[in-house]
Amino acid sequence: PWALYDHHREHDPVHRSELLGGYAVFGYELVREVLVSPRFSAYHPFRTSRRAFGPSMLDRDGAEHQRLRSAAAGPFRPRAVAGYAERIVAPLAGELLDELVAERRTDLVDALARTLPFRVMCRVLGLPVEEAPWLAATLAPLVDYVDHGPTTLAEVTRRREELRDRLQRARAGEARDGLLADLAADERLSPAEVVNTAVLLLAAGTETTAAGIANVLVALGTRPELYRRLRTRREEVPGVVAETLRHEPPLHVTLRFAAEDVDLEGVRIPAGAPVNAFLAAANRDPSVFPGPDVWDPLRRPQRTPLTFGAGRHVCLGAGLAVAELETVVNAVLDRVEALDVLAPAPLPSGRTFRAASPVRCAVRPA
Ligand code: HEM
After folding, report:
1. CB within 6 Å of ligand 1 — which residues?
2. Is 0.90 exceeded by the ipTM?
3. For the whole model, what pTM was predicted?
4. Residue 161 confidence (pLDDT) above 90
5. Within 10 Å of residue 247's Cβ, how many Cβ atoms?
6. What span, in angstroms and rounded, lies between the C-alpha atoms of 163 and 88?
7. Are 146 and 353 in contact (CB under 8 A)?
8. Going by DSSP bridges, is the β-strand pair 22-25/341-345 parallel, antiparallel, or unpaired?
């Protein structure tokens, strides 16, 4: 998609798209403006791309958004996140890697990316880790649907109801420790809102993080010298993770609606029209990130990449996601001497989670 993003950013920054049924913006400042400005709304009475997951803070504005977000925010403060990384992520990543080595399996992307984020979210929410595979299978058709995959609406509805039933039972007393119990005890939230928030956390926090893990493993697997150096220079790990998230953001695009008639760069966007904000295109804007297509872990950008969005809806789990990626890289560096990317092949995928499976590769302990 990168050539297409470049083309639009240069020639047609506010693009009217029949295909997307609305407008699309590509440059850093425009994308940021759409996310930050009150002239664009996350809510639309008839249309939201997130309906696959049901209603949540993600498609609310104003005080309603604030109420839902602040109820869920506590567990995502930096200190809590550091605790999750140490108590939950590091041991789980270690376990998965030890299993891989013991069983002489070779596919690290499979062992970590497709497994770890689901286990982490189980632990964070307070569900049994054994349910992680079920959760992954239940979420997959919902993610496919958002991603314009082949899933049918009936399947989406059925899976969503299964998920809601499961979380409903957990809310009603089974999950004593963890975020679900905390949300259930919060009087600002109705029972339905507790379940909706949990669905959102699962939806927003698993496939995205899985894509991030896959991308960072591939970035390291294709750079053996860097990998060797990192083994003794762990202080460079955060730069590797940050640059991978800029260069290959897991979520390429998010959606807003014009709250009023808006003039953007001379293009009139009528009230109610959908506007696609291409985060991935913003992250490769050469006026903000010089030489944007180069993956450079020593880059110290002046502006924040838009990988996690911006403004009121900026990713609630960004700190956890970054901690998860850094912890995974360190766990791999601890145990695996060298990486090797075997037969990378692009997978067919949709727009939104384009990077969810960027390459199918096996990365093996040497
Ligand atoms: C929102 C990306 C991981 C929870 C967002 C948004 C983006 C994003 C771009 C803003 C969407 C918009 O403005 O329309 C990512 C990426 C991740 C990641 C790339 C991984 C690399 C997580 C994790 C969690 C999480 C681990 C939770 C455990 C949320 C929530 C929102 C959100 C709750 C909605 C916030 C709101 O509407 O106020 N994420 N996310 N995300 N994310 Fe993440």
Report:
1. 35, 57-58, 69, 200-201, 204-205, 208-209, 212, 249-251, 254, 279, 307-309, 313, 315-317, 320-321
2. yes
3. 0.92
4. no
5. 23
6. 23
7. yes
8. unpaired
